[in-house]
Amino acid sequence: MPTSQDQVKQMFKDNPLLAQLKAQIVENLPTVEGRVKASDKSYGFLQCDGNKSYFIAPPFMKNLIHGDLIKASLHEQGKKTSAEPQELLQPSLSQFIGQVQFINGKCRIVPEHRQINRDLPARSVDPKTLKLEQGDWVKAKLSSHALTDKQFAVIVESLVAKQDDPLARWKIVTAKHDLAWDEPESSETTLEVEQVSSRVDLRHMPWFTIDGLHTKDMDDAIHISDQSDHWRLSVAIADPSAYVSEGHPLNQVAKDRCFTLYLPGKTVPMLPENLANQTCSLLPGEDKLALVCHMKIEKTGLLKPDFEFELATIRSHQRLDYTSVSNLIENQLDLDLVPGIEAQLQQLAEFSRQRIEWRQQHSTVFKSRPDYSFELSEYGELLDIHCQPRRIANSMVEEAMVAANAAAGQFLSQQQRQAVYSVHCGFKTESIDALLKFLEKNGYCYSAQELQTLSGFCELRRQVEARGDVANEVLLRRFYNQSEFANDSQAHFGLGEAAYASWTSPIRKYGDMLNHRIIKAAILEQSNEAPLTEELSQHMSEQRRKHKFAEREMADYLYTQYYAMLKVGSKLKAEIMDVNRAGLKLQFMDTGARGFLPASLMSDAKDVLVFETDTGCIVQGESVKLCLGETIEVILHDVRIENQNITVRLEKPYSNTPN
Predict the structure, then answer these.
(1) What's the half-sphere exposure (Cβ side, CA atoms, 13 Å) at 480?
(2) What is the DSSP letter of 92?
(3) Fewest Cβ atoms closer than 10 Å to its Cβ: which of 128, 365, 475, 577?
(4) Which residues participate in catalysis according to the annotation?
(5) Using an 8 Å Cβ cutoff, are 399 and 382 in contact?
(6) Whether residue 597 has pLDDT greater than 90
(7) pTM for the full model?
(8) What does the pLDDT look like over 557-578, one tens digit per residue?
(9) Of residues 536, 537, 543, 512, the one with CA closest to residue 257
């Protein structure tokens, strides 16, 4: 009768000599470090550097969680090498969000994770006040790990949402990324207007705002006039720093949050709504405090270097929305306008065209993509998804704001002011050699020195775009640095600007509010300290990353809800966003959702297709079948809500068999 593994373990435990012998054997075995990858079955794999993977048997997986970083010994069994866990280097779970399950009367927590499909024994940190029910969502902490402590144990710290809460998913996502769920408290804070003697009266100028139909925190107003040989563009930005001083309690709130969070169906403001949507919002017909920049833009689209910043009181003469303004400009549809506004809208449209053309020739412009919006019921139920192509009004506002931020960057740089500069250093220095080989292979001739200059970076991007080289345009991004925040003026390669300091969204971005204070100091000829410590810079970058992931995760959840309602076999159009050996990552054209086309569903046998990750192409023999950036038609194959996966297939797989 074969001996079970548990009996073998007990035998080693009861016999010290055998245990010592085992330790000596293990000590002489090769070891590796890697991350545990759980499967849908009871076994798993250890993923190591160099794309090496080793089998982990089911008994060992009982003591592991997907994502654990471990040290393991390697065992040869015929042609198969397996890994036996020896040491936990880093648990994949520490503090996490999970759902309560009562099994045989005992509380267990199922982690909210796409690839962790196990429940863990739990107890409440305060069972008298924290009453848990089946299906509740909680924040929990892993207190012991089976690999080191022989068993798993979890402590429930707080309730996130009740099981029947219609907004549970929104609360789960914000809690998961350690983000605020609701607006800041403002009932006990007093707002006092700063006293500045140099605030000018610009209420007579016919300012206007262009925003979304449902926007409440309107933070920018525009005025433009045609001066025959140039445009005089004035941008007025709402001034929350006039009410929230550096020592004000709300400043710490804004500093902690850093940004307004925009989730589908839920906006979590950086500042209290009464301040963002009422006191500061540039509502029509109301006097508002603003920071104003006056710019001169040549008719070629060149932003001239003589800017004027001033503190002002303004009054918006009319509130407009993107759709109605676009209909006016693009389709000559009537729009009821205050006298003097229509001429400005036509001028702003012409300014934006000239500015885009100038940037396309001398700087860089990213390809315009549509926006997607989720229509939800008051109970958080998904009703529909709307595709909203970017139209002329979007470009009109965007070009005005980009110009204003570039002007601020140059203005503060000229004054040698330390500020919150947005910096993008182009290509990664450590990737230059690989980039040079990539470019040479694709017929581009650049030196390492050229690629590390702003002009060289922009010239390459323009050349790639001019060739219509979509695949290489996408592949180039693999070599990009991440953007960051810095005290000192540096170039923003991605925007093609020598200096860039964002100040046009102070209601929504803490860095912009800091720049308001610094621009004010420059106007008043006062000194200012460096606004960013290393800690604050890292915090802002981390908050930006968390917002991005939370917004994407919430969208992915709603997308899977939407596609789960569609019939399997439905035809969909999608753009190829990435190519790897496992298959294609896609974005669906009508919703913006992301899907996956597995390599196994693309051909009727192995080795029919070759997936060239370095070129972004799928090749059969000597023929290129598909490439990055192409739009293809696919068939809905499977939707898994639990791990937010949308899988598609080709209507007709590729075959080695001639037609």
Answers:
(1) 21
(2) S
(3) 128
(4) 211, 217, 219-220, 322, 508
(5) no
(6) yes
(7) 0.90
(8) 999 999 999 999 999 999 999 9
(9) 543
